[in-house]
Design a protein that fits this description.
mainly alpha, 3 strands, about 120 residues, elongated
């Protein structure tokens, strides 16, 4: 696992850690079941505070990218199914909300496309 923190980047260090681990897990560079370094170990190797790495790990766990198994460590999770379930749930909530707001299907899809373009343009 290779992570690089760019101090001059506008993204905070915890977000850089989160994004890089997430991308490496999604792309298969970090396979399912790969054991991640401890919070303290990764913090030391990156020159970050342990709380910074802990915040990134908490966000990754919330996203279903990693799972903590107590004393056994932190591992890359089989995130596809958890991520897909969460995305489907968010999509359902969005569809219900825009319908209540009176938006038509076309306008709702346009809003999603704009949001996705903005999110993935980073």
């Amino acid at each position: 696992m290779t992570l690089k923190i760019h101090i001059d980047d506008s993204a905070p260090p915890y977000e850089q850690v989160r994004a890089q681990i997430s991308e490496q897990a999604r792309s298969g560079v970090l396979p399912v079941g790969y054991r991640l370094p401890t919070v303290r170990g990764l913090a030391e190797s990156l020159g970050l505070a342990a709380n910074t790495v802990a915040k990134a790990y908490r966000a990754l766990e919330t996203d279903g990218v990693i799972e903590t198994r107590g004393r056994h460590g932190t591992f890359v999770a089989a995130a596809g199914s958890a991520a897909e379930r969460e995305a489907a749930s968010a999509a359902q909530a969005y569809a219900e909300r825009v319908r209540r707001l009176g938006l038509g299907e076309g306008a709702a899809l346009d809003a999603v496309r704009d949001a996705l373009r903005a999110a993935y343009a980073e």
